[in-house]
Amino acid sequence: MELLNELEMEQNEYGTLMDRFLDMHMYITSALQRTDVKALGLQMALDLIHKEKNIDLITGLKTRTQTGRPNWDKVYMLMLGNRI
Known about the structure:
Elements: H1 2-14, E1 26-28, H2 40-53, E2 65-67, H3 72-83
Parallel strand pairs: 1-2
Protein name: Ferric reductase NAD binding domain-containing protein
GO molecular function, one term: oxidoreductase activity
Domain Ferric reductase NAD binding: 3-76
């Protein structure tokens, strides 16, 4: 996690001087999806902490951890869109 934290800080520091060199998407794949009612309380708590402190409670990074599995079609389209 320390390496990701250093990369995130470096990108924030040099972000205005160069293009983003790293795009992090953090997922907890064993957790329930955001749309599942059982996970609603956890999601609300994580969202509030991230909004107030600008850090993710699970990783300690500024990048927000998502629950569930990635939407790979959306991820790939974002990746291709950044290269076009």
